[in-house]
């Protein structure tokens, strides 16, 4: 049996760690190219230490290797994918670009999102850059047969809190809940959303590796559980044994107070969406998300509890939340 040889550029992040571990469990010969700054142990992986931004050094390092599949978890703009194309063209059987479900049409004209939903995001530069990367790679696929597969995660969590406003990668939101402080929520909190544990995402993702039928295709991979934003925050509060104190604020108002927050909000999480996962299930028949958010959030909390140093309270996030809430309430 031929072993699949795969390179992850990155591989130790919020989403990719689960994928790295599952790939190894499935018998894939996995290589991780990263700077080694996160101190995450992926037992069984072959480590290639380097910074993908140091282009000439990386060219020299990678010239010694051959891979079947390359996955770039940390490509965000055209120069990133151009570099990958230059060094991997005619050398690999599949290149997987990690895009984002935020590339889908905003605001959506239809709430059910499929891979054929138009790509358009006038609000968020991050999403426009991902769209540009997809356009570049699709052109290389059409013109040069560069073997691309595009994957679009939505709000996926493992060591972060899947919230709509800033502060998802620290303990601030939980600290506010425990203290009974107000939590800003966009709109009336009833818009629909989906959050996905990275262990579930990995089940679908690993099934794409080395699958030649996926070449030229794009996929999103999410849970089928649909929650309102009120429910997401309530489930988080229940997990720590408190009652959440929500303040509902129009998304446009949040944009006026804090443009960066507003760009992210209107560019991704302000609208109701329902992800249709039929395509990933056709290509990876055994894929099924099985971790409900009531269980997934406990896994996140357990991760923070393992090390008190992880419980970072971001003063600037607190100031931002308070400014948005106070400005809104003073105008009512």
What does this structure look like?
- The radius of gyration is 20 Å and the shape is globular.
- Helix 1 crosses helix 6, helix 3 runs parallel beside helix 4 and helix 7 packs across helix 11.
- By secondary structure, it is α/β, with parallel strands linked by helices.
Task: Looking at this protein, list some descriptive labels.
7-stranded parallel β-sheet, alpha/beta, 15 strands, two-stranded parallel sheet, Rossmann fold, UDP-galactose 4-epimerase, domain 1, 332 residues
Quick recap:
With 332 residues, this protein is of the alpha/beta class. It has helices at 16-25, 55-62, 78-88, 125-144, 172-179, 198-206, 229-239, 251-257, 259-269, 278-283, 293-305, 315-331, and strands spanning 5-9, 29-34, 46-49, 69-72, 94-98, 112-113, 148-153, 156-157, 182-186, 192-193, 196-197, 218-221, 227-228, 245-249, 274-275.
Helix content: 25-40%
> What do the pLDDT scores average to?
95
DSSP strand content:
15-25%
Radius of gyration: 20 Å
Q: In CATH terms, what is the fold-level topology of the largest domain?
A: Rossmann fold
Number of strands: 15
Query: Which shape, going by the Cα principal axes?
Result: globular
Number of domains: 2
Please describe the biggest sheet, giving its number of strands, its sense, and whether it closes into a barrel.
Answer: 7 strands, parallel
Q: What structural category characterises the helix and strand content? A: alpha/beta
- The total count of helices amounts to 12
Low-confidence stretches: none
């Amino acid at each position: 049996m031929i072993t699949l040889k795969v390179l992850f550029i990155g591989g130790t992040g919020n989403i990719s760690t689960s994928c790295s571990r599952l790939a190894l469990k499935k018998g894939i010969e996995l290589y991780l190219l990263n700077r080694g700054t996160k101190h995450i142990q992926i037992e069984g992986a072959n480590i290639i230490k380097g910074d993908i931004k140091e282009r000439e050094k990386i060219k020299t390092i990678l010239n010694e290797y051959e891979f079947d599949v390359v996955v770039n978890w940390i490509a965000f703009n055209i120069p990133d994918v151009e570099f990958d194309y230059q060094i991997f063209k005619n050398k690999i059987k599949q290149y997987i670009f990690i895009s984002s479900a935020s590339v889908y049409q905003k605001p959506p004209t239809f709430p059910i999102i499929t891979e054929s939903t138009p790509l358009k995001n006038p609000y968020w530069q991050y999403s426009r850059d991902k769209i540009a990367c997809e356009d570049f790679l699709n052109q290389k696929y059409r013109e040069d047969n560069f073997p691309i597969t595009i994957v679009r995660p939505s709000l996926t969590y493992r060591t972060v809190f899947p919230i709509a406003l800033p502060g998802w990668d620290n303990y601030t939101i939980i600290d506010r809940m425990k203290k009974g402080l107000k939590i800003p929520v966009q709109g009336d909190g009833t818009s629909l959303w989906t959050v996905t544990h990275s262990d579930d995402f990995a089940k679908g993702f690993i099934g794409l590796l080395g699958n030649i039928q996926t070449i030229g295709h794009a996929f999103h991979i999410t849970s089928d559980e649909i929650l309102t934003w009120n429910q997401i925050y309530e489930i988080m509060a229940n997990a720590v044994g408190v009652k959440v104190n929500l303040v509902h604020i129009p998304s446009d108002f949040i944009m006026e107070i804090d443009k960066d927050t507003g760009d992210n909000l209107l560019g991704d999480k302000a609208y109701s969406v329902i992800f249709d996962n039929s395509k990933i299930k056709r290509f990876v028949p055994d894929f099924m998300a099985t971790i409900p958010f009531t269980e997934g959030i406990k896994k996140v909390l357990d991760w923070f509890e393992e090390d008190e140093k992880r419980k970072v309270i971001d003063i600037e996030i607190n100031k931002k939340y308070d400014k948005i809430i106070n400005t809104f309430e003073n105008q009512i």
